[in-house]
Amino acid sequence: MRRAVGIGGLRRKEAERQALSRKGNELAQREIEKLQEQISLMKDNLEDFVREHQKDIRNNPVFRVQVQRMCQLIGVDPLASRKGYMAELLGVGDFYCELGIQIIDICVATRSMNGGLMDLDELRQRLIRKRLKGSEPVVEDDIRRAINQLKPLRGGYRIVTFGKRKMVQSVAREMNPDQSTMLTLAEYTSKFNIEDVRVAFGWDEDRIHSCIDDMLRSGIIWIDSHNDAHPEYWVPAFFSQLSGGSFGNRG
Amino acid sequence: MTSPVSAVVDASTASFQFPEIYSFPPFFTRQPNEATWKEQRRQWCDLILAYYRHNRLFSMSLAEAVTEPPFANRQIHRALRVDVLREIVDELVKQGHASWTGARNSKDSCLLFWRKPEVWASMIHQWANDRGMLNTVLTLFELASGDDTIGQEFHGLDSTTLRKALDILQSQGKAQLFVGTSDEDLGVKFFT
């Protein structure tokens, strides 16, 4: 008897467990459905919201970034993709497409000046000047997004940092670590000399010269032989930022 | 935005706005990299033409020029070397914006055409046409320095450039030059 009761009890318990689990699944399912419903409602609302504030999104960069964050949180990216349904709805995908083209334009036009290296903020100021008529302000976040969109083109567009300086690089060839290290010396003064490099990093002559030659060849640095025995090397991309950025006539 | 280096260098250049690159010290050293040098040379050509036009200067003696703006920037204590300037002028000559003067191949001095002689030519012909000066003999002195041309852009044009412009008109059949006792006596008659 005890065994039978035991078995029956176990079976009963098992049945209860299964019933509970069924119920649980059912509840979870219902919960998920409800959530999905809410999310889709939210998407709808967001869509309405974006549609309603389309003009603000285009014209107000702070607002644009906030809308973007909000959309990302729930897995919608209305502004980043040109093909996205919301992008089509809004025409805001064009914003980044257009910005990307303008970035390429500026980088190509100034490449012979700066070796394909440009201060991010200078690029931003040039973009704003270039876009005067439409008057949609551009912020750093916009540039990052536009540059991300350029990736498939394999043009080598990326944002790199030297110390505190954020720079946009627009050539496919990567800078080697020595070059990047050397450039940090020019972060504040826009220039360095061989002695600076020796003192800062303790490199030997060969290493210093081969690095400098590489950068001269790629146009990232310019030589100033005013003092013939001790030439100085200048980074135009850094210098232009110092002077508020209308370096070179083009772009 | 700050502008750390004032563009104003001295009285004669008071209102000329130097480009940003004018305060970039390596701008005054010839860059070893060919692509960079081409860009640098282009910027120098632009600067020279703009500066000479602004100050209505027509000729340049290279050795003297490098001691003054735009080839010397006293604020950053940099100056272009004569041999580098010579290379730049060579490029201007190639573009038709300059021509070497003085002893053959010495390349010590040049004329600068911030307007090409063809442009001066049509400007002068236009003026003669507008003022009813066709078929009238005028001296070159009258053209460049006479009261009638005051206010015209070609007023004050140096005699060599003026002569070049008139030669062009003559070759087009729009003018006839008459030899006088000196260059300033030289006469010209314009036709339609």
TrEMBL record, chain A:
Gene Ontology biological process: protein transport to vacuole involved in ubiquitin-dependent protein catabolic process via the multivesicular body sorting pathway
Source organism, top-level taxon: Eukaryota
Alphabetically ordered keywords of this record: Coiled coil
Pfam families: EAP30 (PF04157)
GO cellular component, one term: ESCRT II complex
Coiled coil start-end: 10-52
InterPro entries per the UniProt record, alphabetical: ESCRT-2_cplx_Snf8 (IPR016689), Snf8/Vps36 (IPR040608), WH-like_DNA-bd_sf (IPR036388), WH_DNA-bd_sf (IPR036390)
Family as reported in the entry's similarity comment: Belongs to the SNF8 family.
The protein's name: ESCRT II complex subunit Dot2
Species of the source: Coemansia erecta
Automatic annotation (TrEMBL), chain B:
GO (cellular component) term, any one: ESCRT II complex
Taxonomic source organism: Coemansia erecta
Subcellular location: Cytoplasm
Entry GO MF terms: protein homodimerization activity; structural molecule activity
Listed PANTHER family: VACUOLAR PROTEIN SORTING-ASSOCIATED PROTEIN VPS25, VACUOLAR PROTEIN-SORTING-ASSOCIATED PROTEIN 25
Listed GO biological process terms: macroautophagy; protein transport to vacuole involved in ubiquitin-dependent protein catabolic process via the multivesicular body sorting pathway
Domain of life: Eukaryota
Keyword Protein transport in annotation: yes
Coiled-coil segments: none
Sequence similarity: Belongs to the VPS25 family.
Record key words, sorted: Cytoplasm, Protein transport, Transport
Protein name (Swiss-Prot/TrEMBL): Vacuolar protein-sorting-associated protein 25
Pfam families (alphabetical): ESCRT-II
InterPro entries assigned to the protein according to its UniProt record, in alphabetical order: ESCRT-II_cplx_Vps25-sub (IPR008570), ESCRT-II_cplx_Vps25-sub_N (IPR014041), WH-like_DNA-bd_sf (IPR036388), WH_DNA-bd_sf (IPR036390)
